[in-house]
Amino acid sequence: MADSDRAHALIWDTAAGAAAYRRRDMRLARQLIFPAVLDRLGSPPSSGAVAIDLGCGTGVLAAHIARARGWTVKALDISPHMLDVARTDNPHPGVDYILFGGRSLSEFEDDSIDAAVCCLVYCTDPDDHRLAALTAEIHRVLRPGGPYILADLNPDATGAQFSTLRYGEPGITYADGDSPAVVLRQLDGTDVTMACHFRSSATYASMLTAAGFPAPEVELPTAAMPPDAAESRVAPYMVLTTHAVPAAD
Ligand SMILES: C[S@@+](CC[C@H](N)C(=O)[O-])C[C@H]1O[C@@H](n2cnc3c(N)ncnc32)[C@H](O)[C@@H]1O
């Protein structure tokens, strides 16, 4: 992160972070992430099947999953401020918004959850140990075969100016441990700078396999329109899909 960005970057789980994120321009995320997540998630395997949304933020995706596919969603976040926005802006009878510590899913039994989604969260959390613990917990609570869909900023697209965001500075190569800011376009056309934490694609894959998941399938969705936009050439986001496997005896 350049010094000027570092001074202005907002932290996600603060009141200011939640207020800024509430005003983001979501068009690109809605166009590229939401359909990929719904495709990978599929329909609930039974009535009352439960999906967990880890780091649900303002609840847009959790409510979309409940509305579009009929999943019962347990939507968890470490930020009471984000959850306040979620309960206000995206209430849905099929979604419970729950505050947790970002690490343990002790409220859920082993093999009790049918699917898990985590969208744009790992890039916001600087704590490798907490994410490793959370990833292992996701594997524990998922029933064998249950999908885990992890969507995030594409670490191979830093510096590209997309229509609604830029992750990191052009011309800089980032490595694990670096903290490039993400600049998000707001609904009023202004920009806000938020703190992020870089991990390579290989690191994402190894975080999943270390938690017991098979190596993920990687999807890099690009936009068809407009043809001259950066997002038609380079994927702003990546969508990783894996699934829980039975625990070894
Ligand atoms: C960029 S927002 C994404 C919110 C939402 N998933 C979305 O796609 O719009 C990141 C969210 O992750 C939350 N977060 C960060 N670290 C977390 C962790 N270890 N566990 C759960 N939530 C976390 C933050 O509080 C914030 O609400």
Question: What do you see in this structure?
Answer:
This protein is an alpha/beta fold and 249 residues long. Helices cover 29% and strands 20% of the residues. It contains eight helices and ten strands. The chain has helices spanning 3-8, 15-22, 27-32, 34-41, 60-69, 80-89, 128-141, 201-210; strands at 50-54, 72-77, 95-99, 115-119, 147-153, 165-167, 182-185, 191-194, 217-219, 237-243. It is globular. Bound molecules: S-adenosylmethionine. S-adenosylmethionine (SAM) binds at residues 12-13, 21, 54-57, 60-61, 77-79, 82, 102, 119-121, 124-125, 130, 134. Keywords: Methyltransferase, Transferase. GO terms for molecular function: methyltransferase activity.
Strand content: 15-25%
**Uncertain stretches of 5 or more adjacent residues:** none
User: How many H/I helical runs?
Assistant: 8
In this structure, how is the largest beta sheet organized? Answer: 7 strands, mixed
Task: Name the shape in a single word.
Answer: globular
- Helix-residue proportion: 25-40%
**For the residues shown, what is the average pLDDT?**
95
Radius of gyration (Å) = 17 Å
Provide a short characterization of the protein structure.
The chain is α/β, with parallel strands linked by helices.
